[in-house]
Amino acid sequence: MLSRTADNLYWMSRYVERAESLARILEATQRLSALPVDYGGSTNEWESAVATAGCTASFYTVHEEATQETVIDYLVFSDQNPSSIRNCFRLARSNGRAVRTALTGEMWDALNGAWLELKDLDSRGILKGEELGRFLGWVKSMSLRVDGSAYRTMLRNDIYWFSRLGVFLERADNTARILDVKYHVLLPEIERVGGGLDYYQWSAVLRAVSAMTSYHWVYRDSLKPWLVADLLILNAQMPRSLAACYGNVGLYLDNLARAYGMQGPSQKLARSMRAKLGNAKIDDIFQSGLHEFIVDFIGTNNRLGAAISEQYLT
Amino acid sequence: MAAFDEMTNADGSIRPAYAPLAEWLRTAPPDLLTYRRQEAELLFRRIGVTFAVYGEKEAQERIIPFDIIPRIMTTKEWRGLTQGLEQRVKALNAFLKDIYGRQEILKAGIVPPDLIYLNPAFRPEMAGKSVPHDLYVQIAGIDVVRVDADTFYVLEDNARTPSGVSYMMENREVMIRLFPELFGQNRVAPVENYTDELLATLTSIAPNSASSDPTVVLMTPGQFNSAYYEHSFLADKLGIELVEGSDLFVKDEVVYMRTTKGPQRVDVIYRRIDDEFLDPLVFRPDSTIGVPGLMSAYHAGNVTLANAVGTGVADDKAIYSYMPDILRFYLGEEPILKNVPTWRCREPEALSYVLDHLPELVVKEVHGSGGYGMLVGPHASKQELETFRKKLQQDPEGFIAQPTLALSTCPTFVESGIAPRHVDLRPFVLCGADGVRIIPGGLTRVALKDGSLVVNSSQGGGTKDTWVMDV
């Protein structure tokens, strides 16, 4: 397969996944910001959403203040934000269009349809927040449609594997960034400072990855910060956890290595991270520093992206 | 002007090729054609979605009208035509080999040297260089028109990167879906094997240094090119990679493509990109869609380009007028297909004849194409005639003139019902190291306006499916 084709497939999936993550972050943010300040809601929830999306610096070159309207505008519609939801769908479609014949008709319809609907969308109601919930639901359903049509219709060969790699690398990055921004509310000593009010912050973290119900199924316990961290980092059953993402990244990289008859730096890197996540205990992670762990993970994930690019996509 | 109609003779009798179709048209319920046409539009709009996808807004306009009444030729008629086409393409290849080689035709005084050296499509970089298997034109589209039951004229040789073959194939697909009963009753020669024949042709021309299983790719300028749809359509059917310039690189005079398995050697490039953009080190330095060093690999004999570089010098309208002599010179045979008599306005006698007879003639720019910059004398206004008279006097070298041919007509389903409309035909000729292949059929273009002789899609032309069948 042409490296350019693989590159387009990989980025097509990354952008769709990124749009979905943004939608989940915004959902959790809107919920938190609606709470009275006494319940853990605070005026800087929107600022925190920008941080979670990883674009604090670029945001403040465009807006002076992080309010509901400026943050929604920047994260959803802005042309100046290369990773706004709108740009994510535009880029995903443009990547898909460049490899149109490698995609199934269903996949293309999903990608193309999403962009055509979003292209000329009226932003007013969404910026005010009235239509935000419905819009974010639509974003998630579009991502589900792309994902589902890929899962149901694509031949299981390198075309599929490269597109899946994009999904899981992006998802791992997003989960790690949510943890990075909210790690302080998960730390026991801060819990004492914030008291029971952090409950809403923890639940917001879980909601941002659609894991509220899963949490209760897995732990059968009230919300505890170290269990939230355990679920998001180490629980391989939880589809957005770092362990689950790396299970899949490893799987698809191994498939490629087998099909091409060659291992490379990306397989090695993925395998060592997968082993690290498989052997870790959440207590040890907290003891040696949750923040350090997450920062290290994000760094490794970026290096893996670069290694995949070097090995296959250029 | 009484044109030859391919279905109905002057006495009202039906020509044999069209007998089954005429009978079917006579007995078909009146609404059926309208209904099928709507269905065809739907099918093409679905294909058209693919067009629109690539070029977006302006692409909507690029969907070419399709006429659902097929144009029919008998196997016997077709056989005669193919002999002429094969002869013509052989002559084109011999001419190009000579022009970039010993130039005997110039020494013999048959073609004036300035027509070669001053021709913008002449590539001095190719002079004295050989190409694999001595083949320059591997894929040709020879535009022909018919004037009576036995006579075909060549209107134009397309020896660069002729397009339109995807219409030939898709028109047939749509017709089979719309009129299964007609295909059941008539033995129409298939065209779907065109891509198999094309792949066999491309594989056959691999350089000698290639492995026994050569790698063939199709090179496109990219998704914003107007013919991108055809490029991706063909690559898909050929089962080869559709590459852009940035997918290829040259190392030690060998071309490689960047793949997920690492660099893979490329042996044959079916390029749908013009000469000037192929290699920024040799041609236009501002080309971002080419491959630096490609020409060095080509000259080293490590890659075959189809078509070769510099073929444009042979399909020029000025050279066209010399084709009968060119053909006799190399093959020692009489041309089977006629050339339209052509006045070269560069010759003073011809110019004065043309100026005297302007209202009867068709005047074309030597380097023009697509039906632009053309004067159809009998249909032109006084003012248009005067404008052209001035142009001719100012720049006689830039023009040729031809008599207005009575292009044949075919029954066509238009607003007013079924009516005769003028047509031409572009058959595709494949020329490999192992022989010439011609798919029975081609792209029939039809001038949808009553009386119009201009079939180009940019000027309101449409297309038809072309049937070659036993009668």
From TrEMBL, chain A:
InterPro entries per record: ATP-dep_Glu-Cys_Ligase-2, DUF403
Q: Which domain of life is it from?
A: Bacteria
Among the Pfam families in the record, one is Alpha-E
Domain (DUF403): give its ranges.
Answer: 1-313
Q: What is this protein called?
A: DUF403 domain-containing protein
From TrEMBL, chain B:
Q: Matching Pfam families, A to Z?
A: CP_ATPgrasp_2
Q: Which residues lie in coiled coils?
A: none
| Domain Circularly permuted ATP-grasp type, chain residue ranges per copy | 70-447
What is the superkingdom listed in this entry's lineage? Bacteria
Give the matching SUPFAM superfamilies: Glutathione synthetase ATP-binding domain-like (SSF56059)
What PANTHER family does this protein's entry cite? BLR5612 PROTEIN (PTHR34595), SLL1039 PROTEIN (PTHR34595:SF7)
What is the name attached to this protein's record?
A: Circularly permuted ATP-grasp type 2 domain-containing protein
What is the originating organism of this protein?
Agaricicola taiwanensis
